[in-house]
Amino acid sequence: MTQSISIDKTASASAKVGKPATARLIGSPWGRACIQAAGVVAFFAIWELASRLGLVSAFLVGSPAKIFQVLMQSLTSGQLLVDTGYTLFEAILGFVFGTVVGSACGLALWYSPLIARLIEPFVVAINSVPKIAFAPIVILWFGTGLISKVALAVSLTAIVALIAAYEAAKEADPDLQALLLTLGADKHEVFYKVVVPFTLPYVISTFRINVGFGLVGAVVGEFISSEKGLGHMIFTASSLYDLNSVWVGLFVLMLIGFVLYFAIDMLERRLLPWRQATSASTLRV
Amino acid sequence: MTLNAQLSLKNIKKSFPSKNGSVEVLGGLTFDIHERDFVSIIGPSGCGKTTVFNVIAGLLDPDGGEIVYRGNPVSGLRGKVGYMMQKDLLLPWRTVLQNVLLGPELKRMPVAEARDMAMEYLNTYGLAGFENAYPRTLSGGMRQRVALIRTLINDPDIILLDEPFSALDYQTRLYLEGVLMEAVETFHKTVVLVTHDIDEAVALSKRVVVLGGRPSTVKKVYDVDIGARTPIEARSDPKFSGYFHALCAELDIQTQTRAAA
Q1: Is B53 near chain A, with CB under 8 Å?
Q2: How confident is the model at residue B198 (pLDDT cuts 50, 70, 90)?
Q3: Shortest alpha-carbon distance between residue B130 and chain A (Å)
């Protein structure tokens, strides 16, 4: 009896309180989008105003109106699309290659804990070097073209994927592995039916980081030596003090990163349907 | 007795390495499991129940002793046993049907045939309509039922159970105990149940093996002479409380001697 009374009380109390108007606005997707768009507009308006009034130096920070002008020019000339396409291609190639090679190596280490323990300190050592420091050597080895940028992106992404895959494979539930063994599975079957699917979410969670690293590799490679690409464009423009062009490059990079992030998100949903399944015990905290 | 033994453990020994040398967990364990037997193994916690379980399953190699299966010495029973634990051990990335099909898949059974069989089992155990659901969307009782089907569909000679129902609420547990007993009767299975639950051991088993001591050995084997067909009937049998108290006393004495030593 007392229990049912207390339940009634809380129910009526929460009904009375309801949600305040601001919470409802932020809660709905459209409300959120409006607030976010307003924020962006306000940011650019303040920037433009400040540079027109001379509060900040238009020479050093650029101005949104000029940036837009440059954007339109480079779009119509087609140069921006070429640069963007080139950088995007390098980044994606580096990301795919690095992730595939890295995850495969990380998973392969599951087969031999002995070898894994042997090479672990070397992996850690390589990982602790800022990989960007390899850039000059990579350019020397692979030239100033596409391959050096891809190689740089691979060196950044592969090690992340390797460590994630190896760590996850080590954690693969031993009881599930035992179950498969009692069902008569051999080591390869345990690998393909338990270890690989178990590791997949962890590998996919590195996609988000690695897609960014792919871009870093491509752009830094272009900074050092290149004829095309957004990194090349930004570097050249900044050495000519053409800040507006630099901003165009940066905003396009931001857009690429944004689009890739959502593409990865969609890929994840596609690859891991079982993670999307709603559980009876999922709580909203 | 030894003539109709399906599985005999003879003087099984097992130690595990620890900080100060090695700890002997099983100090020469000997007992038989008959054809179509239902044997519970009970004992105080830390007595190596799960170690026995893993030795029979072929997941651990004993340091000494012999395992004899239907007259032949074997190293373990991999591929011949079904295995259920407190965790349902369903693969979360597989649907209910795919989980059930795990065993047939490993035995390379034709897909269509295995699928039909799986659907039949799912229908029998009230899981029709859930074949494409992922385990995380199911309740604990349903998941354990899927685990039971996955075990039965392989037609194992011996079903090994390691406290399979201890994480479930009491009603679900009684229900699943009933399902298990019925399935064991229908399919003529031999069952080895490892449990700390004396009540469950008496209600389900034909025989109870009590482990004790450090390292542990078989302290006593009880024949449970209760003719009931269901776990609920068994619990209301007049002989039930006698066995229950005898086994309780068996475990209590052990804890006292250990405290004294």
Answers
A1: no
A2: confident
A3: 13
Q: What whole-number distance in Å separates Cα of residue B101 and Cα of residue B109?
A: 9
- Report the CATH number that the domain containing residue B20 is assigned in CATH: 3.40.50.300
% of chain A exceeding 90 in pLDDT: 27
- Interface predicted TM-score (ipTM): 0.78
**Residue A6 CB contacts under 8 Å (≥ 6 apart), including other chains:** none
Query: Is B89 in contact with A200 (Cβ distance < 8 A)?
Result: no
Residue B256 lies in a domain: yes
Average pLDDT rounded to a whole number, residues A75-99: 91
Residue type, A62: G
Given CB atoms, is B137 within the 8 Å cutoff of chain A?
yes
Domain A61-269: state its class.
mainly alpha
The tens digit of pLDDT for each residue in A164-213 reads: 999 898 888 888 888 888 888 888 889 999 999 999 888 888 888 899 89
For residue A6, the model assigns a pLDDT of 45
Tally of structural domains, chain B: 1
Q: B206 lies in which domain range?
A: 2-80+191-260
How is chain A split into domains, by residue range?
20-56, 61-269
Identify the closest residue of chain B to A186 by CA–CA distance. Answer: B106
pLDDT tens for each residue of B214-257: 788 777 787 777 776 777 777 777 777 777 777 777 776 554 55
